[in-house]
Structure formats: C-alpha cells, structure tokens
Design brief:
This protein is α/β, with parallel strands linked by helices. The chain folds into two domains: 16-168 and 228-323, BirA Bifunctional Protein, domain 2 (2-Layer Sandwich), CATH 3.30.930.10; 330-428, Anticodon-binding domain (Rossmann fold, 3-Layer(aba) Sandwich). The chain is built from 17 helices and 15 strands. Strands 1-4-5-10-9-8-6-7 form an eight-stranded mixed β-sheet, sandwiched between helices. The protein has a five-stranded mixed β-sheet with strand order 12-11-13-14-15, with helices on both faces. The chain binds histidyl-adenosine monophosphate. Histidyl-adenosine monophosphate binds at residues 80-82, 111, 113, 118-120, 123, 125, 127, 129, 259-260, 282-287, 306-308, 310, 312-313.
Length: 429
Amino acid sequence: MTNKLARPRGTSDILPDEANLWQDIEEKARKVLKVYGYKEIRTPIFEETELFKRSLGQTSDVVQKQMLELEKEGLSLRPEGTASVVRSYLENGLDKNQGLAKFFYFGPMFRGERPQKGRLRQFHQIGAEVIGPISAFPFFDAEVIVLSVHLLEALGLRNLKLKINNLGTPAEKEKLSDILREQLKDQVKDLCSDCQERFGRNVFRILDCKNEQCRQVVEKIKIDDSHLDQRSRDYFSEVKNWLSKLQIPFEVAPYLVRGLDYYVGPVFEISYEGEGLGSQNALGAGGRYNSLLQDLGGHDGLGGLGFALGIERIILAMGDGEKKSLDTPLDVFLVYKSINAGDLRDSVYHKVFELLNVIRRNGVSADMLYIPTDFPKQMGVAGKRARFAVIVGENEFKENTVMLKDLKSATQEKIPANQMIETLKKRLC
Ligand code: HAM
C-alpha cells in the first residue's frame, strides 16, 4: 500500500472554482493599481538570505523565527515583497534612469509561522511600493494609504478600520524603544516567554503580542509623542490632514509599531472589523522605509513607502455577495432545443458546436453544456453564468436566425444569424 502524500502544513491548494475568485480579485486590483499609475514588477521568489536580514532586521520575528531557508546555502524563500523590490530598483539602476517609480506585485510569500486561521506558511500578497527622491513627501504617504483603502473597497469590503502611527526617524525610534524598556523593565517576568526574549531583542514586538497577559501589561504603559521632534510631528500632521481632506477615516494608534524593522515615519494597518477573521484580522499594512534605501546602497535623499494586502485574509473577510459581485459573467451561454438526449451524432448538436466556436473566434466569451441536456436545465445554467443566452434549434438553423435573450431583463428577440455577433458586441459595451 502506498502512503498518500499531503500538502505541507500551512499551505493550501487553490482549486479551479476558487481560482476564479482569485483571478477576479487580481483583475480588479490590477485595474485600480493602474488607475493610480502603478506598474507591475516581478522579482524572484527566493533571494539571498542576507537581503532579508539587512532589510527586515536581524532582530525581527520574521528573520529570527520564520525564515524558510533553502538547503542551498544562503538563499531563502521571500517572506515579503518590499526588500526584493528595493533590491531590484537599486540593482537595475532605476534610481539613475527613472527616479520615481511606482510598482505593484502579486505573489506568494513564505513565513514559517505556526499555522492558524488567516495565518499560513505560504500566503499571497497584493503589494505596492513607491520609490524615488521622495524621502519627505507626505502626498505619497497619503496616496498609498488611500490606494490601499480604495483597493479593499473595490473588492467589496466594508467594516474596515484604518489605524495610523508615526514611528519617527531611526534615532526617534531608538528613543521610543528606550522609553518602552524603561516602562516595562519591572514587569518582564509577567510577560510570555517570547516577549521576555523580545524585551532585549526587539521591544516593539511586545506591543502587539496577542497573549492576554502581555496585553494587560501593555495596556498600562503610556506612549505619547515625546520621542518625536517638531519636524516629525509636522510631517505626520500633513499626512493626517491629507487623509481628512480626501475623506479617509482613520484612528491614530500609538501602539501600532509593525513587525518589520525597516519602518520609519508614518505606518498604517487596515483591519477587518466584521466577523470571521478572529485575531488575524489585519487585511493589510504598510508605511515608510526611507532608510532601507540607504541600507541597501541607495544614495541620500531616496525614500520609499508602500503596503501589502493579504489575499487569503481578504477572501476570509468576503461574504458571498462580495464574491459574486466580482464574478464577471460569460457574455453568452448557447442553449439548444430539440436534440435527442445523449445523441452526440445529432446534426443540430454539430451545428450548435460549430456556432459556439464562431462566437468565440469573434472574441465573445461563450460556453454551453456539452452533454445534451433538457432545455429548462440549460436555461437555468445560462441564467447563473452568462449575460445573454443565444437559443437555437432546428427551426432557427433552417431560417438562419437565432433567439437572443437578455438574461437581465428577460426580454428576447429573433435576429438574423449573420447579425448576431454585431448585435452582441453592441449590447455588451
Ligand atoms: P506585513 O504586515 O508583514 O507587511 O504583511 C502584510 C499583510 O500580509 C498582512 O496584513 C496580512 O494580510 C498578510 N499576511 C502576513 N503574514 C501572513 C501569513 N502568515 N498568513 C496570511 N497572511 C499574511 C509586509 O509584508 C510589508 N512588506 C508591507 C509593506 C510593503 N510595507 C511597505 N511596503
């Protein structure tokens, strides 16, 4: 007996029915990203491990605990997309010949986390990055936040909460970590074992630990903006003003610190406040990472920022209505009458199959039930899958006509067969 092999823990198979939804999500997202002037970039799904260590930070949880390293020494599957995009921008000299660049990407990311609902080891992101001589340019901070909200709304999602915070410059971040250590130092023993270790390694991570005990400790500490200088405060105020002007509701969350070390300045997270996601309810997050550009060899004055949305979590947050609203129906479902059930030699059936191919060759999407099936059943499927039904039978073929039924208005009319494509194209506009 052979043992069946299973997929690795924390991964999923996207089967054809669900893959349709993934395509719809990607298509919709592509449209929105192009409206904002972003262009696609495709980078390798593995990189030198060193790139992630230098970008996400040696002390970040992702680098310390979640990297999926390849056996081939020195390479790792990418845990996120930003580091690769920045590497590619610099390596390909886009700073010299293009200056400002706006990228988007879709693809799998890999983190060796403990799997749970909404937390996988292979998951997929829709990401966007803006990189160029924009180290202080609050319009872009506002743009990426507006874009991420717009993307989620275009996918039909409501019940979203946008939280923003200002981490300040690297030196100000350092001050904040000193303040946090000072306030937490007497309660280290009350923290979970992970956070006890984070206290020395990366104190920011304690702020968003989900452990109840840690949350109680964190609730008692006081964070204000005393670690920020006036310039940082003014910058953040400008970003907030733009969000208000552009009518994007937000909440300032001083505890929002983000898990990747490259962030400086404004950061944000969008969570889903409806049911179904549990503790993993962050649909997307992002922020500024100016110093990453210099850390990876870029010249002074270059800055970057962006965000990524998790596709699996978006799907978990979607109801049937949202899923259906993305579904692009077929243009035409071909419905045939008077065929002997089960008889594939029926001459009407042959003509129907020929007609199906004529419709498709003219760029109109079309399908039919290939196994001869009764008329009401075909109409039922047509109603679910297509915008129009083209109904044909022996009489129509004799008269060179087709019956065109609008499946939204339920009206139908007989038209000459040679006008069918033209009529369909007009109505589908
Ligand atoms: P992140 O917050 O680590 O940021 O991930 C962004 C989103 O990816 C999360 O909000 C979540 O929806 C999804 N995600 C993360 N980890 C998992 C997981 N294990 N399973 C399922 N979904 C997950 C970044 O990755 C940054 N690169 C975002 C960015 C781009 N910042 C600036 N530019």
